């Protein structure tokens, strides 16, 4: 579960806000595989004075917390320039049993991306991502905010987002499937109108070539986006993340202004 769960950091749509606006949100998600709880995700998003900072914390839940204890933390910050988001830095750390890994990315002028990876979390041979493929990309957390910003500005989530997460280079290709109505479920309290966005993953470089996890990746992401309460900006209220080993179901369990 931990390989696909890392993808959640990439695709949770967060409210980016606009320059000059102030907005803070604390979101908690529960993630299920079939009927089993497998992950817990907490998101803290802060937009203030033309800048943004978002932290995402993930950890295994239920029986997996004992059988496969894994946790990860990621934080990204940058600035909002009109309708564009300019990432400044991204840091992610993961731990699985005795293994540790940390990723640090820094963004310069002209789309330059510099950084390093310390530690190895997964067995197998991974291809390198050339410098030219890193340029002009955004980190996974900023990528989600880019989609939210696009939706707020144009009313549609359609478009491509180029992403480099320190290890992998890929594009998320979004299409807007329009408004829909969500009924409440036992897993999440939200009900009402939402916008459905579907993304496919275009793998480019940096994926595992050998090992038992080679070839494992997300293939399609279906995301329902809506304000979690009156006056809030739209965020992910429900998501299905399909991959080579099945589908993870993500539900917004709570949302609040901290």
Word description of this protein:
The chain is mainly beta and 258 residues long. It has a single domain (2-256), classed as YmcC-like fold. Helix content is 12%, strand content 53%. The protein contains 5 helices and 13 strands. The protein has helices spanning 2-6, 8-11, 64-67, 131-134, 140-154; strands spanning 23-33, 36-48, 51-60, 70-81, 84-96, 99-107, 113-118, 159-164, 169-182, 192-205, 218-226, 235-243, 246-256. A hairpin with a 2-residue loop joins strand 2 (36-48) and strand 3.
Sequence-ordered SSE layout with sheet pairings:
Layout: H1 2-6, H2 8-11, E1 23-33, E2 36-48, E3 51-60, H3 64-67, E4 70-81, E5 84-96, E6 99-107, E7 113-118, H4 131-134, H5 140-154, E8 159-164, E9 169-182, E10 192-205, E11 218-226, E12 235-243, E13 246-256
Short description:
With 258 residues, the chain is mostly beta strands. Helix content is 12%, strand content 53%. The radius of gyration is 17 Å and the shape is globular.
Helix content: 10-25%
Summed up, the helix count is: 5
Please list the strands of the largest sheet in the order they lie side by side: 7-6-5-4-3-2-1-13-12-11-10-9-8
Question: Whole-number radius of gyration?
Answer: 17 Å
The residue-averaged pLDDT reads 85
Number of separate domains: 1
What's the CATH class, please? Answer: Mainly Beta
- Termini separation (Å)? 30 Å
Order of helices and strands: HHEEEHEEEEHHEEEEEE
Largest sheet: 13 strands, antiparallel
Overall structural class, as computed from helix and strand content, comes to mainly beta
Primary descriptors:
13 strands, 13-stranded antiparallel sheet, mainly beta, 258 residues
């Amino acid at each position: 579960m931990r390989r696909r769960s890392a993808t959640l950091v990439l695709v949770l749509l967060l409210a980016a806000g606009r320059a000059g606006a102030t907005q803070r949100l604390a979101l908690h998600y529960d993630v299920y595989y079939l009927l089993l709880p497998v992950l817990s995700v907490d998101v803290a998003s802060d937009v203030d004075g033309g800048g943004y900072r978002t932290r995402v914390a993930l950890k295994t839940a239920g029986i997996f917390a004992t059988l496969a204890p894994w946790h990860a933390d990621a934080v990204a910050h940058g600035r909002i320039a009109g309708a564009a988001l300019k990432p400044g830095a991204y840091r992610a750390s993961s731990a699985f049993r005795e293994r540790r890994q940390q990723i640090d990315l820094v963004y310069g002028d002209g789309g330059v991306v510099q950084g390093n990876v310390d530690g190895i979390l997964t067995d197998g041979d991974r291809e390198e991502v050339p410098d030219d493929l890193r340029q002009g990309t955004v980190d996974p957390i900023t990528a989600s905010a880019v989609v939210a910003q696009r939706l707020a500005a144009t009313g549609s989530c359609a478009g491509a987002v180029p992403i480099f997460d320190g290890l992998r280079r890929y594009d998320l290709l979004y299409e807007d499937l329009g408004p829909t109505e969500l009924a409440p479920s036992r897993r999440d309290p939200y009900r009402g109108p939402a916008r459905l966005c579907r993304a496919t993953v275009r793998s480019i470089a940096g994926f595992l070539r050998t090992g038992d996890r080679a070839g494992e990746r997300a293939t399609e992401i279906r995301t329902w986006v809506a304000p979690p309460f009156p006056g809030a900006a739209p965020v992910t209220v429900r998501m299905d993340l399909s991959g080579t080993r099945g589908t993870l179901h993500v539900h917004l369990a709570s949302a609040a202004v901290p």
